[in-house]
User: Fold Beta-glucanase from Paraflavitalea soli.
Amino acid sequence: MLAGSLGAGNTYAQSQQTASFRSNALWYDTGGQLMNVHGGGLLYQDKTWYWFGEKRGVSQSEGVNVYSSKDLYNWKNEGVALAPSADTTSDIALGCLMERPKVIYNSKTKQYVMWVHLELRGQGYAAARAAVAISSTPVGPYKFLKSFRPNGNMARDMNLFVDDDGVAYHIYSSDENMDLRIARLSDDYLSSTTQDSLLFRRQREAPALFKKDDLYYLITSGCTGWAPNQASLHSASSLFGPWKLVGDPMTGPGANKTFGGQSTYVLPVPGKKNAFIYIGDRWNAKDLSDSRYHWLPVQFKEGRVVIEWIDNWDLTWFDNF
Ligand code: DGJ
Assistant:
């Protein structure tokens, strides 16, 4: 993936193989192009990681991009997984907004299922819908199925979470972002069930959920558009709560503004117990395509979840996990 240092004097070959995470640097794919995969999430399938995220122009939404990797460092551009439609009557007509896409695999239906926050063309953020698309392969192209408000609720920033028993959940900001809600998905992962409840009403966005030792953790941001704000961590022993506010998991310089970024996903590292990578976006509101990536190890110190800024690190961090 990564990374020339910024600006002049960048001596890296753009497609050079890399083996470390350097948040905020320019991240290149294996073809030498800058990666464009924002508000994203990952899927691990058959020893390959797939990274799905928003394809952005300067401001416009250009669908969902997907990249693949065998090592989490070097990413191959697999193209647009879900493209906006040229059909102006479609919910995903060109000009719509697709944000925070996430993909999960349903082993019963053998389908890859994508959920994405969808805003209808020309309506700003008023529509507040979830959209669902499917594919028989991880990279797609995905077929758009439908968009809706889960149980009638507004649905903006979102994530998906599959529990150990294979049951999947949609976590979403609702009621003009005042509420964070969770809905259990149907067994085929294509719909919300009516098991849909309020997590808390604290005006939070950017939910990223993970599970460690039978406890669920949820990182969220405040609501300040593209500008960074303070993260918070909640924990619960049941997905439907009660959720307890733990505080800000970010520590060190820049922590009170999430190091200039916003959460999007927490990646469990396969084969490692209790190894997780926090993934965030450092948005560039003037050119969304130039938004950068934050990848940082999640640390557990004296029972606390701690995320510190580290300029340059690699997976050997988890060697003793
Ligand atoms: C904050 C959200 O987290 C982003 O996904 C995006 O919707 C921006 N707001 C838009 O201002």
About this structure: The pocket of DGJ is lined by residues 39, 99-100, 157, 205-206, 225-226, 262 (CB under 6 Å). The domain at 2-320 is CATH 2.115.10.20 (Tachylectin-2; Chain A). Residues 234 and 245 are 4 Å apart (CA to CA).
